[in-house]
Amino acid sequence: QVQLVESGGGLVHPGGSLRLSCAAPGRIFNVYGMDWHRQAPGKPRDWVAGITGGTIIKYADSVKGRFTISRDSADTMYLQMNNLKPEDTGVYYCATGPTSNNRRAYWGQGTQVTVSS
Question: With contact defined as beta carbons under 8 Å apart, do 110 and 95 qualify?
Fold first, then answer.
């Protein structure tokens, strides 16, 4: 079992910024890439952004231009979130590993992001 460790969530005003991090062992991101998802209260979990092949990065339309995936090592990925909006509120999860039934094998524990004035 691969353990992903997330951090960086919190409470921020609209227009503010946060940076989430996701750490995983064994350079697994190099092999499988990774995705960020979020789940708002009472709603299904949605895909937010992802990286594959080391350089191919895609974003959901709702966050394009505001969120950025980056990395500073083989083991840690980041999601920089700028100009946050109340609708960005939710629990954010990182995920990696092989995909089965359109679902990644390994998931982080989730980190809460709340955007509120």
Answer: no
86: buried, middle or exposed (CB in 10 Å: 19+, 13-18, 0-12)? exposed
Instruction: Give CA–CA dist 2/98, Å, rounded.
Output: 11
Q: C-alpha 2: how far from its chain's center?
A: 17
pLDDT digits (tens, 9 = 90+) for 76-111: 999 999 999 999 999 999 999 999 988 999 999 999
Rounded mean pLDDT of the chain? 94
- Look-up: residue for tokens 């092989």? 98
Question: Is residue 115 within 8 Å of 14, Cβ to Cβ?
Answer: yes
Cβ neighbours of residue 72 closer than 8 Å, sequence gap 6 or more: 78
What does each C-alpha distance from 18 to 33, 44, 46, 59, 84 come to in angstroms? 22, 22, 19, 17, 8
